Amino acid sequence: MYAASSREALDGARVELETVLRGAAAQTDAVTVGTELLAVADTVSADRTLRITLADSATSADHRAAFADKVLQGKVSDATRSVVSSTAARSWSSDVELVGGLRQLGREALLQAAKAGDKADTVEDELFRLARVIKGDTALEQALSDRTRPIADRSALLRTLIDGKVDPITERLAVNAVATTDELPGDAIDDLSQLAAASNGRKVAYVTSAGELSSDQRGKLAAQLAEIYAAPVTLHVDIDPELLGGVVVRVGDERIDGSVSGKIATLRRGLR
Asked: 107-116, pLDDT tens digit by residue?
């Protein structure tokens, strides 16, 4: 979560990003901007002097913007330079949150590229499935989250698993998340899946079912949830036979337990 001043700064920087992307001539421009913003975030994160200078509230906004522009001259596209300069000119609560803002903008640019290329649903689904694969393989998740291994090594491991099997935007997002997050890799990629859904105007419902849901059941559940949340809902379904029957649904921080095991647990609590 960002502090209030950083949330305001991020909202302002988004306006610049959207302006830049609206002026982009092609989907590839958004991919370039997103990729470059992630790279800039990595560079700023690794350079303490650069990081502090860009976030120094004691200097003027114009000075910070000009400094960012000068540092990036000839190293990234004009569009990316404009976004970074605008981001640096805003008031961030800390240099760490400035880096987080740059990274968030990079991810959003890539997701906008996916949407422009009619690949938003594909990227969202691939991120969800990748998160499930990682969470289901303890050895893999440990290897990807092992901070004693170089970032390049962990990134290469993930690329080996997904190269040629997912959209390039999915790969860029997933590899960056694994390389830069303090979360467990599966959780970090799950967060990206939710961000992808939000960028496509959808909410994500994580559904755990005792058995496979038919297409009709999925359609009815999605329609019910869409009515509740007043927005289209994407279902991500996991199977857990221990539920005995019914489903458990999680949307954001809300949890709806309609499973048999959940009802049994409620009855047991009432008998105590």
From this structure: 999 999 999 8
